[in-house]
Write a structure and sequence with these properties.
The chain is mainly beta. Helix content is 11%, strand content 47%. The protein has eleven helices and 43 strands. The strands form nine sheets. It has a 22-stranded antiparallel barrel. Strands 3-9-10-7-8 form a five-stranded mixed beta sheet. The chain has a three-stranded antiparallel beta sheet with strand order 4-5-6, with no helix packed on it. A hairpin with a 2-residue loop joins strand 7 and strand 8. The longest helix is centred in the first third of the chain and has 21 residues. The chain is globular, with a radius of gyration of 28 Å.
Amino acid sequence: MDILRSRSNLLATTVLSIGLLASAPAFAQATPTPQAGQAEDDQSGIADIVVTARKSSENLQSVPVSVTALNAEALESKQVFEVTDLARTAPSLTISTGGTGPASIVYLAIRGQAQNSPNSLSDSSVGIYVDGVYVARPMVGNLGFLDAASAEVLRGPQGTLFGRNTTGGALNLTSNQPKNILEGSLKVGAGNYDQRMVEGILNVPLGEELAVRFAGRYSEHSGYFRNPIAGYPQGSVNGEYVARATLKWEPAALPIKLTITGEYVDYKDNGNATAVAAINPAVLTQASNGAYINSEFASFVTAAQLPAFTAANSKWTDTFSAPRTGDPLIDQLHNTNRVKSTAATFEWDLGGANLKSITAYRTSFTEDSLDLQGVPSTAVAGSPPIAFAQGCLANVPSLVAACTGAFTANYALVIPAAFGPYVPGLVDARSAFVSTYNQEQFSQELQLSGKSGNLDWQTGVYYFVETGDEQSRSWVFGGLARARTLSDFKSSSFGAFAQLNYHLTDAIRITGGLRYTWDKRSIDRHSTNDWSLPDNLEKCTVGANTGLTAAAAPCTAANSASFKYPAWTFGIDYRVNDQLFLYAKTSGASMSGGFNSRTVPAPFTQQFQPETVRDIEVGLKGDFLDRRLRTNLSVFTSWQGNVQRIVNALVGTSLTQFVTNAGKVRASGGEIEVTAIPWTGMELTGSAAYLDAKYVAGSRFENQGTAAAPILVDRSGEPVTQAPKWTLNFGATQKVPTSFGEMSFHIDYAYTTEKAMDSFTTKSIAQGGTQANIDAVAIANRASIIKGYGLLNGRITFNLENPKIELAIWGRNLANKAWFTNVFNNYTGLGATVQFQGAPRTFGATLGYKF
């Protein structure tokens, strides 16, 4: 079977590569005449791109903002099927997914500004907007692109027009709207790993003023990652259903337009695969664990682990996750995601002004389980067995005498110490969890815009509220700890904004904008000590009733906080001539503060403060060589304060993840995007970004002692997470007219240098630290770096003009490059650092029909 798969992989790669390379001579020779109805300069010049980066339609080359814009054709040719794929298309954008969150989560970073916690009360530094609606939870941020019209990546703070939580930038996604013509399409696809897909679109006019558009897709594929322990491959999609219906009413007698959209998403898979990067022999003591270390991380294999590692001879796509807790929701690794959304957009031309209202309601349910160590067994068998110790901790009456004899009368304290993470003694020390998240949100935005002489203006108000709950059940060290964290939350936000563009001359324009936001966040925690007990016997671990059972007193710990902050922008731009546009601007924005739903050890706090950002950016946009060369450049510097970062920790035997404020960061860099048409039918695209992001020296001290005896450790020398030095991408598309229609050959390559996903500085020997712990932290830090990688993709299409049929042969990660999307680092706690594999080589074909 492996041989057959290898041959099919090689065949697909060869076909695509030969097709793309063999077409090169035809590129230089192809000089077709313009088709009927098509202007000559459409064949020879780069087309204008209209964007809504400033919530109004503008030419990309006249917008004083760093924007990457992709239309529907570019999204399809570059195989941008979901939000994570955008990372291959834009400079300074990195996107991670999976990790300890579900497959639907996205960890967005632009210019080194990132917030990576899946907490329901913390936000992303890059906002996601779909048809003008803010998607609040990164937990469901990896949206699939169905019937997409465009995608815009806005870089730099966007707080004035887009609001809070856009300190790094924003993703502005739009879908195709109903038209007054009957049209539609049907597409089916198949590929390796048993991939199957069907997608349909139908647009129906219901008279001259009313139209409706339907779009739907179903897809599935088998697992990418062999798991000999579980007995089935992981990384499968067991079913993804996406459906959307949009109704547009635009009466001829009234200057109004009403658009109503409803969408439904249902996604299931069999869990995130884990690649073990390093195993701490002081915690997980079996030398045989070397067999489970991923082949890409040989440098972290110890001498004792090496024989097992060598004998295993595993591939980078192998995984060994297989929790055995007795709870099927944990043991059956999975991701589940369901989303329902409704939105109504009302537009009214008032003559001297335009009014726009966007009303939206959205609900989501997400559930995921994960093996946190990625190994099937993790410690030397010991005595007494773990089941006996668990019975003692559960206070089973028949075991009291035996427990006292084995551990003394203080066995409730002795057992956690004896079976702690640094003392081998567990028969099975596997650690895993399951989390569920429920969220619903409502938003209402009113925008009023217009023009008066040399002044363009827009103003508006925004209201947002969300409620929900999240729960995690963890299984730590074979069940020694079985904590439940449960929280209810509510967030509300109100903002008012105004932005003015004043034309000093026909060529010079100044821009000023201000927004003020008021936030309120509330949380009520109900965490307990052991989810395996009957509900009325679980003991509260938070609030005033800590230690009491649910039967004795309610478990509640309520907190609330309010935050308020401005966002602003000021800039000037200069249209030098038809070819050259210059701009300079400065902006400020904030990412909302919030609460942690999980346990937070001292001296950290449950509440964290808003992160603030201000920046300066200078840019150039130019169309040269008779519009055959487009070059957009920008350089920037940003200052971040109260930076929000996540911490993964094991406190005793309690597993936790929380957000904390972590000093100041200064980030500087530059970006370039180039589009060229060297000859008829050929389009070359490319971008590059350099980023230098560092903590400000002395801005990040952490107390690793106690309040009474503080030990201050300077952590400002650590790398800024999710901030690679370089991001690069290149693409080439050649269109060749034929007697039956057109052929198109596309290839693209994207490269990202290494990036740290987690880092820590522990106290020195002079401060009471140990060399063993310092060495362990150093290994954990190195194992938490995602190595640089490049992905090669290609697509060949055959388009028939009549009937309109398209056959596409495609491939992704054609070189089958090993790459990883995220990291969970608990090397000094649970004993392992794991990374999460990206997809291997995939290939297939689609057949589409349009009418």
